[in-house]
Structures are given as structure tokens and as C-alpha cells.
Write a structure and sequence with these properties.
alpha+beta; 3-stranded antiparallel sheet; about 70 residues
Length: about 70
């Protein structure tokens, strides 16, 4: 079993986009949070399957840091 940090981004029009910092190939979305998470799980499993097929090492999880910057707009 592996665990990966995901970034779940609510979209203005509804739904969520999911990114996985350790696996940049994974970009998915869903109409609901639950659907986005299920789609992310499936996408992660497919990418890991591809890594194994290519003989590549599966990357370790990447912890992310969230901060805020103020800029002139």
C-alpha cells in the first residue's frame, strides 16, 4: 500500500479538480468530492501500473505546503 498527498481544488462552476504532486501525470476531476476522490484513486492506480510496466521507480509522496501571497492587482 502507498499513500499520496492530493490537492483537491473546488472549481467555480462546481466540481473538483485533483492533482497529485508526486505523480504529475495525475490530473482528474469529479462533479462531487467523492467522485473526484474515486477518480483520483483510479488515476493513481493506472499511473503506478504504467510506472511498473516501464520499470520505473514509484516516487515517494511529496508533502505540499500552502501559503498566501499578497500582490497588486
Amino acid at each position: 500500500m502507498r499513500q499520496f498527498t492530493i490537492n483537491l481544488h473546488p472549481q467555480p462552476e462546481g466540481g473538483y479538480t485533483v492533482l497529485v504532486p508526486a505523480l504529475p501525470e495525475v490530473v482528474t476531476e469529479g462533479e462531487t468530492r467523492e467522485q473526484a476522490l474515486a477518480n483520483a484513486r483510479e488515476a493513481i492506480e493506472l499511473v503506478i501500473e504504467q510506472y511498473r510496466a516501464e520499470g520505473w521507480d514509484i516516487p515517494d509522496d511529496v508533502a505540499t505546503e500552502v501559503d498566501r501571497l499578497t500582490v497588486a492587482a
